[in-house]
Amino acid sequence: MSLVVALDPPLGVDERKWCINLIDVVGGIVQGFKFGLPLIVKVGVRGLKDILSVSNREGKLLIADLKLADIGYVMSLIVRSIADTGINTVIAHAFVGVKGALAELSEACKELGINLVLVTRMSHPGASDIMDKVFNDLLKIVKEVNAWGTVLPATRPDIIRSGREFLGSSIKILSPGVGAQGAKPGEALCAGADYEIVGRLITRSKDPLGTALKVINEQRERLRSCRGS
Amino acid sequence: MSLVVALDPPLGVDERKWCINLIDVVGGIVQGFKFGLPLIVKVGVRGLKDILSVSNREGKLLIADLKLADIGYVMSLIVRSIADTGINTVIAHAFVGVKGALAELSEACKELGINLVLVTRMSHPGASDIMDKVFNDLLKIVKEVNAWGTVLPATRPDIIRSGREFLGSSIKILSPGVGAQGAKPGEALCAGADYEIVGRLITRSKDPLGTALKVINEQRERLRSCRGS
Q1: Which residue among B42, B49, B67, B143 is the active-site one?
Q2: Residue B179: its pLDDT value, please?
Q3: pLDDT grade for B56, boundaries at 50, 70 and 90
């Protein structure tokens, strides 16, 4: 299956221990982990390195969800500074454009062997103020810089479908919004996503492993029914 | 005068010592300091707190240039986590829109007594791909969330003038791009900016204090001539 767990520690916990514990518990059955900017700002590069020094991270997607949106020099500097933590995928915003921004970041990522994922659509209501109006232009930028993937909300299967149609099959689609935000496991996969990102539903569960297994089963069932139909 | 120094440490230095030293050297004559995301990611909240524990930071603008571009919950979480470091100003992107994003961030900033500054225009060539096309909409968002200020490039006095005209006099304009990026000290102030942000010209100088004084003198001279004309 194609499950990535978003590790966003609640306030008041020891962030490193919390993350390490969850990676240990569900690492055997999921495809990757996503680390948000709040965590990264809190613990810094060294903290991230501690977290990723755990054993069962091999072969997994380890995503720094930095939502970078700066000039190329600054974005590349950040990616270089986290490159030796074990992170193999970073998220930036397509809207900053190519020249002097994503062109440089894309080069730096290639050089460092890091997957570049670009946000082209967000799910909050305010995304309609500006971002939704330029969705097609943002998708074009994903193609232009030959990004490894894009982020599209699981709550909008119609958007995932049109993103997949535009981008073709080689660019990965990562979909957050499964669980707490309302999308059901498997829905985004059925619409064409490659990975579903699940956070609180699993990480706040009393039984994270059991819940992750349940999510995977639901993904399988849903995929079976949507592919069968 | 209205000089903010961007503290972007070069690779290979002890970032904390480098920042603390520069704050110590030029803190007496400048209006503030800006800390970039590469530094913050590198040293984390604790490192930022160490840096800002220096003596002569009182009354200064202490800016975390996070270029936040996420949902409101995530952006607020980050601002909350750095609120006790001494940072009193944060930079986010206007383009993420209001509802579910900047509305929440704006509330969190008010509650924490932190100035919110929104990027509405960047200076790299790729900014013309998307951002420049929606410049007026981005300025409207600055007004709508009643942000404390906006970021406009010192290299484009024409843009600063139209930003000032649109925003009125109560919203601050912060202008990076002075020095290494080509704008001359005072140019942005003459066009209507409140603060000029200078980085490498001062921080990479052999005599940061002397260079900062020179910049301030140039700002004064230019302001005198542009206001006199």
Answers
A1: B67
A2: 85
A3: low
Per the annotation, the verdict on B49 as an active-site residue is no
**What's the whole-model pTM score?**
0.96
Three-class SS of residue B152? coil
Q: Which secondary-structure segment (H or E) carries A19?
A: helix A15-26
Q: Count CA atoms closer than 13 A to B36's CA, side-chain side.
A: 24
Residue A9 DSSP code = P
A137 touching chain B per CB within 8 A = yes
* Residue B169 predicted with pLDDT over 80: yes
> Pick from A78, A131, A137: which is nearest to B37 by CB?
A78
Q: Is the pLDDT of residue B11 over 90?
A: no
pLDDT of residue A56: 65
Distance from CA of B221 to the nearest CA of A (A): 31
Q: Cα distance from A227 to chain B (closest Cα, Å)?
A: 33
DSSP 3-state of A80:
helix
| pLDDT at residue A180 in the model | 74
The contacts of residue A176 (CB under 8 Å, 6+ apart) are: A6, A34, A123, A151, A153, A154, A197, A199
> What is the helix (H) or strand (E) element at residue B176, kind and residue range?
strand B172-178
Residue B117 bridge partners (DSSP): B91, B149
Q: How far apart are CA B88 and CA B116, in angstroms?
A: 9
Residue B35, token pair as written in the block: 């800390």
CB contact under 8 A, A130 and B36: no
With bands split at pLDDT 50, 70 and 90, how would you rate the model's confidence at B229? low
pLDDT in tens, B176-217: 989 877 899 999 999 999 999 999 999 999 999 999 999 999
Mean pLDDT score, A128-138 = 94
pLDDT at B54 (0 to 100): 78
Chain B neighbors of A93, CB-CB under 8 A: 69, 93
The angle at the Cα of B206, spanning B205 to B210, to the nearest 5 degrees, equals: 75
DSSP-assigned states of every residue in B41-81: HHHHHHHHHHHTTSGGGTT-EEEEEEEE-S-HHHHHHHHHH
Task: Kindly identify which residue of chain A lies nearest to residue B83, measuring between CA atoms.
Answer: A42
Q: Which residues of B touch A90 (CB under 8 A)?
A: none
Residues 6+ apart with CB under 8 A from B111: none
User: Chain A partners of B66 at a C-beta cutoff of 8 Å?
Assistant: 37, 41
Pairing state of beta strands A195-198 and B195-198?
unpaired
Burial class (CB in 10 A: 0-12, 13-18, 19+), B73: middle
ipTM of the assembly? 0.95
